[in-house]
Every structure is written in C-alpha cells, then in structure tokens.
Design a protein that fits this description.
The complex is a heterodimer of chains A (95) and B (996). Chain A has one helix and six strands. With 95 residues, chain A is mostly beta strands. The chains are: A mainly beta (95), B alpha+beta (996). The complex binds zinc ion (ZN). Zinc ion binds next to loops of chain A.
Chain lengths: 95, 996
Amino acid sequence: MLLVPCPWCGPRPEVEFRYGGEAHIVRPADPEAVTDEEWGEFLYARTNPKGAHAERWYHLHGCGRFFNALRDTVSDRFTASYEIGAPRPDGAEKS
Amino acid sequence: MSGSFRTAEGGRVERARAIEFRFDRRSFRGLAGDTLASALLANGVHLVGRSFKYHRPRGIVAAGTEEPNALVTLIRDRTRRTPNLRASGIELYEGLVAESQNRWPSLRFDFGALAGLAAPVLPAGFYYKTFMWPGFAWRRLYEPAIRAMAGLGRAPSEPDPDRYLNRFAHCDVLVVGGGPAGIAAALAAEESGARVILCDEQAEFGGSLLADTESRIDGRPAWEWLAGSVASLARSPRVRVLPRTTAFGYFLDNMVALAERVTDHLANPDPVLPRERLWQVRAKEVVLASGAIERPLVFPANDRPGVMLADAARTYLVRYGVKTGTRAVVATVHDAGYAAALALHQAGVAVAAIADGRREVRGELAEAARRAGIAVRGASGVAGTRGRQRIEAAEIRGLGAATAETVGCDLLLMCGGFTPSVHLFSQARGRLRFDVLLDAFVPETAPERVRAAGACRGAFGVAPVVEDGFTAGEEAARGALGHLRAARRPVVEAQEFGTGEAPGADLGEGRGRGKAFVDFQNDVTAADLSLATREGFRSIEHVKRYTTTGMATDQGKTANPNALGLVAGMLGKPVPEVGLTTFRMPYTPVSFGTLAGPARGELFDPVRTTPMHGWAAAQGASFEDVGQWKRARYFAQGGEDMAGAVARECRAVRNACGIFDGSTLGKIEVLGPDAAEFLDRMYVNSLRRLKPGRCRYGVLLREDGFVFDDGVIGRLAGDRFHVTTTTGNAAGVLAMMEDYRQTEWRDLKVWLTSVGEQWAVIAVQGPKAREAIAPLVEGIDLAAGRFPHMSAAEAKVSGVPARIFRVSFTGELGFEINVPADYGRAIWERVWEAGRRHGMTAYGTEAMHVLRAEKGYIVIGQEADGTAGPDDLGLGWVIGRPKGDFVGKRSLGRAEMVRADRRQLVGLLTEDPARGLEEGAGVVAGAGRGPQAEILGHVSSAYFSPTLGRSIALAMVKGGRARMGERLFVAVGDQNVAVNVTLPVFHDPEGKRLHG
Ligand SMILES: [Zn+2]
C-alpha cells in the first residue's frame, strides 16, 4: 500500500486519500470563450505519461486538503508533493 | 518410546514428554517438539496421501513448508476442520487428530488409483482438449466427476467459530526469517539502536541451525548461541519477536503482511486468544532472510513414499531424532547430499550407495563418504524405483550406460541443489539474476528499501550466511536511522559442506520406466512438459498454465526450478531466456479468517442507522440497505404484504399526512461572505438572488454537463446556507465542492462543513401536515401566506432548536423538520403523537418512491444515471437564466448535448392498466422482437400507483418529448407490452396541492 506524502500530515497510507487525477489542468477562466474542441480537451485529454506524473491527491480522511504530488508511474515512487497553485517542482511544463 | 525409528538420543524433541495423536484413526505417540511429519516418520509412516490427479501413493518429501505431498486435514471438532495443511508445518499437540486426503475408501486401498491406470490418456492439456464440448457438459458432467476424483481436502461446511485479529505495526527494520542470517541481522540492527521486528514461520527460531550440531558461534555450540541470541532479542525493548509468523505478502512502500498462528499448536487454546493474527507491518527497511529450498531430482518413479529430499532427512535426524529409513540410497548433484549421507551413516542407517550426477566427484565430503565405506558412483543417476506403497529398490545407472544396477533400499534421498527463496524479494518488485553456478535465480536490485541476506541471496554455509546477515542488519539499521552504532560481529567456526554449486546434471530425465514427476502436488511429469514444448508452447508462463505445473497450493516451491530447467533444456535455450513465472502472494496459504479479521457478520461493513431507527424497528418496519444506511422501506401492519403497506402509506400521504425519516440525506453547511457566490458557481440555480428564509430545488452538474446530484438549498442568512444532497452522494458532493473551493476558486471566502450526522430530518407530508405539526412549532407562523412553499426558517419544535423547510418530494403540502440528531427520536415521537389525530401514518422509502414517481420527480441513480443532462430530465427550468458560469454550463452547449433525439424523460402508461413494467426494460417502436429492433430508451422507474389505481412508469426515450401520445412497446418477459407516451407527471399536474 502506497505511502502518500501529504505536505501537511507527512507520509500517510493511501487508504486515507482520494486520487484527484492529473494536476495543472486549469479550468478556462471564461468557458464560454473557448471552442468546443478546447473545452473537450479540458474535460477529457490527459497526458498519461510513463515516468514523472504531476497529480492531485485529496487527504479526505486526514487534513481534508487537496495537494499536488509528483509520482513516477513506473516505479510508483513519489518524488515531491507541493501545494495547489505552486509550479511543478521539476520544472516540466506538462508531464 | 515414541516410535521405533527414533534415535536413542539427540535432537531438540523433549524425550520425557510423550504426546498421543491420531492419524487416519490409528493412535500414535510422538514427542513434544515434533511436527506431525516427524512424529509419523518416527513411527515408520511414510505413506500419508494420494496424489492429486493419479491418486498415486505419496510420502513425506520435505521438512519445511515447501512440502508438496503430505497435505492433511486437521480436525479439532465438528466446526474446526482445516484441510490442506502441510504435515511438516503442524506442531504436535496432545490429542491431535489428522486425516489423509484425496483417497477413498482408505489411504491403502484407494478406488481413485484406477485413474493411475488410465494415466496414459491423461496428458498435459487433457482437460482443455477433451472436455470442451458440449458447453453444458463441463458444468454438469465433467467438472463434478473430476472434482470428486481429483482435488485436495474438503472445505469445512460450518461457519468458522474462531476469532481473528488484525494489527498494524511500524519498525525501523523488519527481518523476515529467523535462521542464522536473520538472527545475525536482527542482532546487528538491534545493537545499532533500531526498532526491530523479527518473524519466522516456525515455532522455533534458528532455521538451518536447528539441524546443526557441528558449528560453533562465538565459541559456543550453535544451539547455545541460538538460545542466547533469541533470548537477548526477546528481552530488548526495541525488538518484537514473532514465531509461527509467516511473511506472506510484500506490498508497496515496504508494507509486509504477516500471518501469526497464535493457538493452532495448543491442545486447549485459551478462548481469550485469537486463532490467528494478521500483522500489517510498515518497515523503514526490510531484511529478507528467507533461506533456500532444496530441489528434488526428476527421475522415473521419483514419487514413491520413501523418496525424500536429502537435507530434509538430515533435518529429521538431527533436529527431531528420527531415522527416515534403515537402508538409504542417495542421489545428488550437490555436496549437501553427502552431508546427509554421512549424518545418516553415523546414526546407524545403512547407506547403500551415493549416485552423484556430476561428472567429477571431488572434495572433502566425498572423501569422507568413501572413508566411511559408502559406495560413491560418479556421473550416475536414478533410472527408476521399485516398490508399491514404499520404495524397495533404486536403479542406479551411469550416464550413457545401457544397464542399471538395482540397489535395495527403503529410503531414497535426493538433492538437486538449493533454490534461494526469492518470493518476497520478487513481490517487492526486485530484479533477479540467474546464477549459473548455483543454477538458480538470486536477488539483484529492488525499488523498495529491502535487502536479501544469507541463503536466499545464494550464500551457503553457516559462516558466510551469518556474516551476510549481520552486514545486512547493520546496513538496514543505518538506512533507517541515518547513523550506525557499532555492533559486535559473531565469530563462526563451522565445518562447511562444500560449495553451493549444482551444475544441473543430466540424469536422463524421462528415460526408463515410470513417470518422472516435476510437480508432485499437481501431478505434472517431465513428459507433460515435453509434450507442451512439442505442441509449441515457448513461454514458461504458458507452459505453466497448460501443464498446471507450479499452480498447486505450494505454488511450485519444489517444482518450478526443475520445470524451468527442463523446459530450457527442451527448447535449447539458456534458463534466463525462457523466463520466470511470477511469484504471487501468499507465500504459503493464508486462511480467509486471517484476511477477514474481525470484519465478519455484523462487523463486515459498518451499518449506519438514523436516530429514529429504533422507533421504526419497534413499529415493524422492513429495512432496506442504501449504501451503509438502513432505511425503513415500509411499515407492514396486520399481515399486510409490501404492496398493501405501500398502498396504505401512499393513500395516507395523499389524503391526510405521512411521516418520513429523511435523516440519511447528506447535509452541508456552507458559510462565509462568498457562500452565495460559491454555490452560484456550483449549482445550475441562481443562488445569489435567493433571499434568506427561502430555499430552492438545486441541481448539481459535473463539468461534463451531466446531472450529478440534487437537493434543497436553503438560505438561512446572508452568509449561511443549508444544502442537502442525496443519501448516496453525501460524501461525493462535499468532495466535489472542496475540490473547486481549494483548487479553482481559492479566492472565495467560504467554508464547507458536513453536518449530515448532526441533523435528524422528520418529513411530514400531506394535506394535514400543517395542522399536525403546528401545535409543536414555536417562533414561526406556518400559515400558507406567511410560510409559503420553499420557505426556510430557524424555529423551535417542542422547545428544541430546529430548521424547518417547507419542501415536498411527494407533491403534497410538506415540511422537513431538522432537529439536532440527539433529539431526533424524541421530537419524532412528539410529532407522531400530535399527528395521530390527523391520520398521520409512517411511510417508508418504497412509498416515497411511488409518491415522487406519481409527480415525475427524478431520482439520482435512476432517471439521472450519469448520462442525462438537465434538459434531458426536464430540468431546464431550474437553470438560472440571468446568471454567469457554473460547473458544467459550457458542456450544455456542446453539439451532442443539444441533439433533438437525446433520451428524454417521459411517462409511460400501459394500455392494460394492471400491467406493470420493469425498471431497465427496453423501449421499442414495434411489437416485433429480435436484435434488429431499435432500442429507443429504457424504463427508469416503474410502480403501481395507488393514487391512480394503475401502473405508471418513467422512462428515458429518444426524442421523447416529441412523442407525446405515441404508442410504443416495452419488453416484459417474452412479450412486448403496448404503452402510451405521456408527460412524466401523473398526479396534480398543475401543482396546486404543493401550495395548499
Ligand atoms: Zn493531510
């Protein structure tokens, strides 16, 4: 069972968390201004990388906070966790 | 005397404590410290079971949990029958009763052995090839017959009466395996200051040292050093020692699951103790010291009782004081075979010959054997065996020789080298490397913080193993603590038994008479593997599944290395190219009780009950499960059936008033200066403009535009909202709101609190609802003009602070009284008392569903099934027109969402009013049936309406709103029933009653 590094609570077992999908997918500020295609991208397109993946976690049965983390999808190792709104610590634009 | 094969002295058994036990209804005596296997062998019993497929007589092969043959059923009482236990892992206790398996009527005369005569027609893949057609025959004919003949022990039929517990533990260093490497690792880690857990599957710590009377460690005999080391570890406050505890699974981030057998070894267990305990250990570092498993040799008729692993026979002799025969032949490709031969020779067992498969016989041990007068045959193997229920002779043949020499014996020891137990390392996703000298896979690197030590890493001999274990313990402690306090390294003086080399000798497998077994437990032979490769199987994973080798309860602990070597040879490829099958947990079988722990019966899943549950139960309510909730479904009275009760409850609500427990609804308190703005962005409704004291039917979409949830949003003050959700989505809605609050609109000042458990909800619905509750309500005037439909207020009911909403999910005048949960039942009973004179009737969820369906109110999960947008459900009117963005709004404009032929909510009335429809049934255009009929939609709700006196249904139908009055058909059973499409409101379409 994974240990998920909550920035506020430290490493906690995965059963305390709810997975939140890929991070850094920003909801368009004015949805009416984007095309159907762009909106569809926002809704459904995800990078699904092999390697470093920036993703959201929700510490539901803990502090109740959302945060972002970098996890290697091959080794399942977390390399960082960081607050919502902060940039990716590895500097990558998108995974 | 505890058996005629017991030595006069020696071993670790307690000579003074005899133990009576029964095997297959015969009484025997063993000694304290025996396993069932050692006690049977001490009594000369080798035949202990029949094989899985051919019902061949089988004996004890091993001394550890790798035992493939000796599976028995242990019987304590009628409810405590445990099948498929390995005799070598059962500690003897007074009065133990065990039975052999897979034989009828008895072990010696087994009817199923006739299958052995049919053996030539039972090759690999036989089931796949033979029992394919007709389809029904497998289930009805073949499978029952095969199961009756083949198979393992019977599962117990009674519920398990024992208790099982579950513990979580954390440590710096977990050491798996308490042999010389594990003990040394634990000592090193403990002395370095680490918190240590040390576990071993056996009753006694020591592993191979328990069968070692030669070595000296720290100047003391091995057993003395062992006792001192284990005692000092047990005394340390930093160490937890867990005997009888198997590490059976390795999970992500160093979580290792251990199964501790607490009472199975006791004759009269204290009922306070659990039978087994599951440990979920999270370790900073793990040291795997899981040892190695001796490998059998594959030769014709290698499965007769009396054919054993050589080091197992040595273990039975040295540890248990048991001679496994009187005249032995040893077949080996490893020096350990000589060590066993010499030990038996010294104990007075005649060793007739050693057949060494290696081309060159050299080394000290071989010399010692020759000096002892034992005939050593180099470059030789076993070409066959004789005997029926016990071996009588072995045929020894030189490599390439035409004839064999027949040597009489009652014991044939085999040693094909040792296979490191890499199971857990592999489960830790560790990479393995094939070591040609050892002819085995050894651990390399792993992503987890784990290291292997000792024999499971390919180290052989006490001194290297202790050294390796100690180093691993030190390194693990340093890894966990970041520093190292010096620990004292044990000094070993041991006479090492040569090398660990086992150059996979060619013993002429498969040549000669009789089956050469590779997998004893699943009855797979070398010929089966050969057939599989001839039929084109190349991957070891495919060969495994086709032949079933390695797929028995022992997961091929003794079989897999030989199977791999043979298949590699047949394919002419090096072993690493053929691959390795996956090591899956559990390492050894784990009882379901251990995995379930206390989560059984009432504790299987949490049960949530409302504050009024007891009242409903006392009124004879039938409950239904809604998630974890128990909800009152209907209140049958005086012999009513469900339909009768529901009809009475519905009529009461329509004609007088009903009382309903709505406490399971989710409730979220939304607070803050931006609460209105926040909810306005979440829900489709205009909520900024909602006035305090008013509430609204709210609809929540997902970002993709589909309806996710609905409920009532009441505004109690400018900055305070009381939001209800459906019962099932209570957690989901809060999580979704938190997501937007924390990640998208972080500038909004708003706080969300789940108050679902804080408020009990008493719904009173019906034309008499106001009269019924008015006498109890203080602080507000309930009159229609003063407290109209969709009003919300804080007030007092019977002196208790309450939130009252004038809302309706029935189409009648209705109120929902929220009171603090602790007052729920008391206020409910007051309302009940006050309402009785107005004809108040308690109604359950079934009547609630009928009443809402009569009004065409949707239910999340039925009409709104995750594929329906608000317009599809006829909820377009809910969307606030003069408002900006909200969750899902952008998706409503996508082409797919505005198609005219989307499935839309309609009502269906059967032409025959008595004819009911079924939820989920397809709606089609014609009376014809068959795959070509286009499905236009499906029935989402179907009930008999007591109000209308006829069947009603709601359905989602393609372009449904344009089909009013159309005649369609719905499949019911094997016919299509004619229906007319109507508006989805069957009762009071103008909604007058709501405003009563
Ligand atoms: Zn947290």
